[in-house]
Recover the amino acids of this structure.
């Protein structure tokens, strides 16, 4: 049975375990219909031209984990930003781990989607926000919606800011030969409130894992949200990340995506600017080797006037790795005085690595500033000679230049310990000791 | 110390150096002058090991060893230093971190441990002071947004840190204001000893008033066409290159 059929037939079993009387279930059923009609996207679709899900569909994924598995904190500590205190929402094989988590209801809600979707006290918020910015049409998003049950739920009321950043971490333990996970996150940051989130998916064995995640973020007036995605997974772990962000007046939302590993990663990052004087920032560092594949699809929809968007993605591709960057910017007719910037710079360090980069601008307003640029190059030979002439060996010189190339993306990371960690991951990934403390 | 024998070098099949002979002994200062495009920077790059240039004939010998197979970093470890005419901007790497890496890589090549951090800091401070470089400067990205003069001063700071045996200064004076020129020249003079040597590439006599050469060579069309003492630089300043070009074609 292929994966689609399996998912469709699993939906009934899923229904035995959720409250089908809850209004959310109507949303699920609707979504299931859409997925049933559309199925998985194929390479024939423009948006999936360079990323094939064919291989994944042949794998016999378990849709529901059979049993829960425990992990000792000391064994997985390194996957957390453990040098600082954080709230933690942790899942093991898709099941919430109270052991590894630290949630709160103290002035803010940092807890579980399963509670939000079932407890009456959250019903009003779920009615207003759940599945309101996520696509009702895109098949993988609707697949996630159909099975939505668990994930992170964060609600930050007006003028509040949690005492510390939130880490959302998903571990896969290899309990199943192949496991499919579909976490669903809902994040609401009310007027003038602030939030920092670090998200990570980590497989701990070489068993196949496929994660199809959906995150909805609502940033109200003057809210500030920093979202960091750390993608450094095992070579048998694939991730389809669908993130939808709805922004209101004067809000700031920054999403950083660090893609250093995994088998196949697809990032669908969608910003909808429903207001004025706001700023949406997307930054990414991608460093790949082996046969890894990362596909960044970004969308910024400028719906109202006087807003900005900034996109800056850098990629370093080695060995047989492949990358895609597709940045779509839509500026509606009334969205005058829009400033939209997009930059995608890439370095290929192997003859066999490839990158496909494409800006997609749809601009219907006339008074806008839009700039975009993409480059694909090798390391600058003059810079190499300069470093080598100072006694820095070729390998280290290369690493230093690649580090320097990616570095400016990190400047905007506002959690210093995370920045340090990412710096180390970059150094590791480049396989060198840079001779100084990052 | 340095012996260059009948050196020919090309880039993309275009011959730029056409038979250079030069001998530099420990304790000496040599100046190389010559019109734009005559091959001065190319000669400097070839000595430092830039692979873009292909040596088609002749060789560069340092302390009796042919450098042919040495990568630029190997040459640096053997004591060659090139102050670039156009230093390269390296965003994202601070001057301090860059220097730490360079020093420790050189030490590693010599089988030494990393320099202890406090010793490194002290050294950096001392050399920065000597060249009157502001401390704030050291945490900035290497050469990024530096003014022309700042870049040159930074090159000599690096030289002071690395204490090379053979320093080649390619138009270090261009872009420096009068005070900076004096500071930089004093720096170079302080580093001079009977055991090391300096090759100064310049268009102007002014630098040579501070860093006084034992020999002056004129490079023209890929060849050294005239050599003399320091008075040759004065003569060039007064008369230009035409007379030499004519002599060379005779
Ligand atoms: N990479 C290169 N490709 C092609 N030609 C080159 C290259 N590098 C140097 N040349 C040429 O070689 C010649 C010598 O250049 P070089 O930079 O050595 O001159 P120079 O004497 O240092 O000049 P200046 O006084 O202007 O600094 C010039 O004609 C230059 O255009
Ligand atoms: Mg030159």
């Amino acid at each position: 049975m292929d994966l689609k059929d399996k998912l469709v037939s699993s939906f009934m079993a899923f229904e035995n375990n959720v409250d089908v009387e809850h209004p959310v279930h109507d949303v699920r059923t609707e979504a299931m219909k859409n997925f049933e009609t559309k199925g998985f996207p194929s390479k024939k679709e423009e948006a999936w031209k360079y990323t094939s899900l064919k291989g994944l569909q042949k794998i016999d994924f378990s849709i529901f984990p059979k049993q829960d598995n425990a992990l000792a904190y000391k064994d997985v500590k390194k996957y957390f930003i453990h040098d600082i205190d954080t709230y933690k929402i942790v899942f093991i094989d898709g099941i919430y781990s109270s052991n590894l988590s630290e949630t709160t209801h103290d002035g803010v809600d940092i807890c579980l989607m399963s509670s939000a979707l079932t407890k009456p006290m959250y019903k009003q918020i779920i009615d207003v926000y759940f599945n309101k910015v996520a696509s009702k049409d895109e098949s993988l998003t609707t697949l996630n919606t159909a099975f939505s049950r668990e994930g992170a739920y964060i609600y930050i009321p007006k003028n509040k800011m949690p005492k510390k950043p939130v880490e959302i971490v998903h571990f896969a333990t290899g309990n199943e030969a192949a496991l499919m996970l579909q976490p669903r996150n809902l994040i609401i940051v009310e007027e003038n409130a602030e939030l920092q989130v670090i998200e990570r998916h980590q497989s701990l064995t070489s068993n196949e894992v496929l994660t199809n995640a959906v995150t909805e973020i609502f940033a109200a007036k003057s809210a500030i949200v920093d979202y960091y995605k750390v993608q450094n997974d095992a070579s048998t772990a694939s991730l389809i990340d669908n993130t939808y962000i709805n922004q209101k007046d004067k809000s700031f939302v920054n999403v950083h995506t660090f893609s250093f590993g995994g088998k196949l990663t697809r990032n669908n990052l969608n910003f909808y600017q429903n207001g004025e004087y706001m700023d949406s920032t997307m930054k990414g560092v991608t460093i790949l080797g082996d046969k890894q594949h990362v596909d960044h699809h970004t969308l910024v929809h400028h719906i109202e006037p006087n807003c900005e968007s900034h996109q800056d993605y850098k990629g370093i591709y080695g060995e047989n790795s492949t990358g895609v960057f597709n940045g779509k910017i839509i500026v509606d007719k009334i969205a005058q005085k829009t400033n939209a910037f997009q930059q995608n710079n890439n370095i290929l360090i192997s003859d066999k690595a490839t990158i496909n980069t494409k800006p997609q601008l749809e601009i219907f307003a006339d008074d806008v500033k839009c700039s975009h640029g993409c480059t694909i190059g090798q390391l600058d030979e003059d810079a190499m000679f300069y470093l080598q002439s100072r006694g820095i060996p070729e390998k280290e010189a290369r690493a230093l230049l690649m580090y320097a190339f990616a570095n400016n993306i990190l400047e905007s990371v506002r959690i210093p310990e995370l920045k340090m960690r990412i710096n180390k991951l970059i150094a590791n990934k480049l396989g060198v000791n840079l001779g100084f403390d990052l | 110390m340095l012996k260059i024998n009948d050196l020919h070098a090309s880039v993309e099949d275009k011959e730029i150096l056409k038979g250079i002979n030069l001998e530099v002994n420990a304790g000496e200062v040599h100046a190389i002058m010559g019109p734009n495009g005559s091959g001065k920077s190319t000669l400097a790059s070839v000595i430092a090991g830039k692979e873009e240039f292909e040596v088609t004939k002749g060789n560069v010998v340092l302390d009796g060893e042919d450098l042919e197979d040495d990568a630029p970093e190997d040459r640096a470890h053997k004591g060659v230093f090139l102050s670039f005419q156009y230093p390269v901007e390296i965003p994202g790497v601070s001057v301090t971190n860059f220097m730490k890496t360079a020093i420790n890589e050189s030490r590693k090549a010599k089988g030494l441990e990393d320099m202890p951090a406090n010793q490194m800091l002290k050294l950096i401070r001392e050399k920065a002071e000597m060249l009157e470089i502001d401390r704030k400067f050291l945490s900035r990205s290497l050469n990024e947004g530096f003014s022309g003069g700042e870049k040159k001063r930074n090159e000599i700071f690096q030289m002071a840190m690395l204490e090379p045996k053979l320093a080649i200064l390619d138009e270090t004076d261009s872009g420096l204001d009068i005070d900076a020129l004096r500071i930089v020249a004093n720096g170079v003079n302080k580093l001079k000893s009977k055991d090391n040597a300096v090759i100064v590439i310049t268009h102007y006599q002014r630098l040579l008033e501070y860093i006084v050469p034992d020999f002056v060579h004129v490079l023209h069309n890929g060849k050294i066409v005239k050599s003399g003492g320091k008075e040759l630089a004065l003569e060039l300043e007064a008369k230009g290159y035409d007379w030499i070009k004519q002599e060379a074609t005779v």
